[in-house]
Amino acid sequence: METRLGLKENLRQFSLLVLVNMLVGGMVGLERTVLPLVGTEEFGIDSDIVIFSFIIAFGIVKAFTNLISGVLADQYTRKQVLVAGWLVGLPVPFLLAWGPSWNWIVVANVLLGISQGLAWSMTVNMKIDLVGPEKRGLAMGLNEAAGYGAVGITALLTGYLASNYGLRPQPFYIGIVYTLLGLALSIRLVKDTRTFTLLEASKNLVIDKQSPRQKPGLWAVFKQVSFNNKNLFSVSQAGMINNLNDGMSWGVFPVLFVSAGVGLEGVGWIKAVYPFVWGVGQIVTGPLADRIGRKPLIVWGMVVQAFGHVIIGIEYFPPLVSGLSGSVMLGIGTAMVYPSLLAAVGDASAPEWRASALGVYRFWRDIGYAVGALIAGVVASWFGLVWAVHLAGLLTLASGIFVWSAMTEPNRLSR
Question: Are the CB atoms for 176 and 95 separated by under 8 Å?
Fold first, then answer.
């Protein structure tokens, strides 16, 4: 069969990858509502930094795995790396459900970070490979909608299970289904997409004139994405701050709202609304980024997220109302930002080294999990949990202003 770029032309394989990424995202959703409370209530940990250590471990490991995932995809195949990600993730739900100490929870998150770094990176790369340059925003919107929609749904389900059956092990049974199904689909049905990258490279569709055409080494790509290319630097710092918000909310929100008198089901709704709105919203914002450009959505998405922090942090509304309202704003802002950032990296990198460029961007983005959890733990220890929310909002606003001043919008359709 002839290899052709495009969403319609590759709809079956694209749809399969959407389903696979739902399962990948669901694995992160397992932890969003329940795991911080496992630390405080089951293991009796009273240090915010220790409680957030599982997020720090997850973020650092996932970031470095992202960095090498592109190199692995170039050396082997995207499908092989995807399958490896699922294999590494197989023990995770078992460790979360029955790990006898907090150290085992941290180990589970190290494995989860590796698994996510390999599997999610490959679903991103494979969808970009399939659709070509003109539909990258749509492709990333659908990919991230599937992943983070599943995060939200799973967070809600685990909150329900925890409120009815206890914090462990029942909420983590879902993860066993996710891993087995994701591995089976990836082995049996997913096809590799290397031929699509070769086809795109042959068409000479380079978009960002700052970027080299020839494939550079990993260190050269790292420098290009991290500081040499102004657009990629803008994207990388915005991605890091965006996930700083997620890492902060992951650890802070369950403890903050339980201490404010919100029940487990209420916390489950708060934790579900953020990624669910984030996920579903990208169905709209992904294609919108193809129409109006990446920069406007990135800038205003960061501003909307900062406003969400204000709603949560002012302590004016009842806790459940402020939690739900602020989480909706965080979800809308993140939906604006997330596919736009990924598509912008695709714009600024040639097909020959795009997987490595995405790996470097995702390295900086997911370091934000660790930075957010660490900052939240330190600030919460000194000033209280709500001040961690305030600081995250200020950093988000500053990041959006920087993108507005530094990033230029490339002509995505130039040939």
Answer: no
Q: Tell me the three state secondary structure of residue 13.
A: helix
Q: Which residue has the tokens 């949560």?
A: 312
- Locate 143 and state its tokens: 């990919």
Mapping DSSP to helix (H, G, I), strand (E, B) and coil, where does residue 377 land? helix
Q: Mean per-residue pLDDT for 155-180?
A: 92
CA-CA distance, 376 to 41, in Å (whole number)?
A: 20
Choose among 219, 218, 20: nearest CA to 120: 20
- Tokens for 169, please give them: 């092990």
Query: DSSP per residue over 204-220, as a string?
Result: T----TTS-SS---HHH
φ, ψ for residue 350 (rounded to 5)?
A: -75, 155
Q: Which domains does the chain have, with CATH numbers?
A: 8-406 (1.20.1250.20)
Q: Does residue 174 register a pLDDT over 80?
A: yes
Q: How far is CA 331 from each of CA 145, 306, 399, rounded to the nearest angstrom?
A: 11, 11, 17
Kindly indicate the confidence band of residue 385, based on its pLDDT and cuts at 50, 70 and 90.
confident
pLDDT > 70? residue 6: yes
287, 338 contact by CB (below 8 A): no
In angstroms, the CA 174 to CA 273 distance is 19
Distance CA 117, CA 363 (A): 9
DSSP codes joined into one string, 127-152? HHHHH-GGGHHHHHHHHHHHHHHHHH
Backbone dihedral angles phi then psi of residue 318, each to the nearest 5 degrees: -55, 145
Residue 376 to residue 371: CA distance in whole angstroms: 8
pLDDT tens figures, 271-327: 888 888 988 898 889 889 888 989 999 999 999 999 999 998 877 778 889 989 999
Q: Distance between CA 121 and CA 129 in Å, rounded?
A: 12
Contact call for residues 27 and 151 (beta carbons, < 8 A): no
Residue 205 pLDDT > 70: no
The sign one gets for the Cα dihedral 251, 253, 256, 261 is negative
CB < 8 Å & 24+ apart, contacts of 211-217:
211/348, 211/349, 211/350, 212/350, 213/350, 213/352, 214/352, 215/350, 215/352, 215/353, 216/353
Mean pLDDT of 223-231: 88
Count CA within 13 A, CB hemisphere, residue 319: 14
Evaluate whether 54 touches 336 at the Cβ level (below 8 Å).
Answer: no
CA distance 158 to 172: 7
